[in-house]
Amino acid sequence: MGKQFEEFEDGGVVLKYRRHINGRGLVAMTAKADPSAYVASTAYIEADSRVDRDVRIGEGSWIERDAIVGRGAVLGANVRVGAGSVIGPGAKIGSHSRVGAGSTIGAAARIPHDTHLPAGSRVGAPHTGDLRAA
Which residues lie within the region annotated Disordered (predicted)? Predict the structure, then answer.
């Protein structure tokens, strides 16, 4: 049986990833990605992150360490979710957006494409109209 993971070197540290069953994206060995989630082939999910059921992660997107992506969230192409961030269930983040480390995106929130949220941002649910940085 062939190798079940892929290795990359980063400054002398060897990082191990496995290919996700749905989309073939790279998932760190200590990350959890539900089998029902779609992780595009050029997307990365870093160590200790969690991707819940029915999530869609587009091409070139990067979920950094310790981030959580809630059930049914949709991330467009080339989205970067900062370390320790939480993306609420059903949230949608447009392509080419950046979510700074430690940010919280509320359930069903909508982030337009090309949006750059600084570290620690809080975006509420759509009914609040709340789009503010902490």
Answer: 110-134
